[in-house]
Amino acid sequence: MDRDSRIDLNLFRVLDAIYTQGGVSAAARVLHLTQPAVTHALRRLRDHLGDPLFVRQGNRLLPTEKVRAMMPAVQAHLKGLMASTHAQPQFDATRLDMAFVIGFRDILESFALPGLMTSIGREAPGVRVVSRRVAADEVERELATGTLDLVVDRPLRAGPRIAHRHLLDETLVVVMRRDHPLAAQMRRADYFAAAHVAVSPLGEPNALDRLLGQDGMFREVRLVCQHYFSACQIVAASDLLLTVPQAYARRLAELLPIVVRPLPVRVKAFPIMAYWHQSKDDDLAHQWFREHVVTAITRAILPTQK
Questions:
Q1: Which range among 4-18, 99-113, 153-167, 284-298 shows the weakest confidence by mean pLDDT?
Q2: What is the pLDDT of residues 228-274, one digit of tens each?
Q3: Neighbours of 213 (CB within 10 A)
């Protein structure tokens, strides 16, 4: 074989990473390589293909027409190779000895984990689960690097290599102490005249307030908490109102002296999505785990929304 006709197939993994990540530095993080190594691989591929492959525009590398034309085939072949190397002729959950890391909000954690651990414990006693918070702008990077296996959250911005699945929709309600002046009746004007507690675990803007602000509506948020449970405890002992997903509100109303009332503002239900990296699409262990997570969430939440 002529030397000029030989090409290292790993170079196409570098090409795909730069194409999807938009830059050498981001591609290096995804591939667990140094930036000089990625730059060197890109230079070799340019020499092989006789094309610049990418042109710089601001902080991003934009693909040339040649790259755009060839990427569908390149990605299809890479996916096929990954699937073949991870092929598992038989899957036996009882033999699994591994840990899965999930990105959860505290509400979903409290709903999903009890049922999830029960079902997993029966089928796969060797499986361990880690649940933790993750910032929205870190989700894609952590899924790509494998530090997270699955994220369940409201809609997030993610690139083409992040697969997703709609699980259910959250309906919002208002909770307040049982003898609150608005417990008997709460109109739209009452809601906006009242003081509120909001929940923002990582200090990011509250999703509801962003949504209301788009329509020129603003609440007086007097307190911001990290967790919904502590917020409900505060509401039970004060005049503050808390807007919270319906399923969680009904469960907490069984434990705390609070009541659940309809949100007097027309707001669309918030979708709950599952996210994972495409490289784990066909992995049987990850497929098995995702289905257990989805089942645990839907069984715990949907009955309370009926």
A1: 4-18
A2: 999 999 999 999 999 999 988 998 999 999 999 999 999 888 899 99
A3: 13
Name the DSSP letter for residue 269: P
CATH number assigned to the domain covering 94-169+271-305: 3.40.190.10
Two tokens, residue 224? 């911001």
For β-strands 220-225 and 195-199, DSSP reports them as parallel
Architecture of 3-85 per CATH?
Orthogonal Bundle (1.10)
- What phi-psi label fits residue 146: left (phi over 0), alpha (psi between -120 and 50 degrees) or beta? left
Fold annotation for 172-268:
D-Maltodextrin-Binding Protein; domain 2 (3.40.190)
> Residue 76, class by beta-carbon neighbours within 10 Å (0-12 exposed, 13-18 middle, 19+ buried)?
exposed
- pLDDT digits over 119-154, tens only? 999 999 999 999 998 888 889 889 988 889 999 998
The C-alpha atoms of residue 62 and residue 54 are separated, in whole angstroms, by 5
Statement: residue 183 has pLDDT above 90: yes
What pLDDT does 144 receive? 87
Residues near 81 by Cβ (< 8 Å), separated by ≥ 6? 9
What does DSSP say about strands 150-153 and 270-277: parallel, antiparallel, or unpaired?
antiparallel
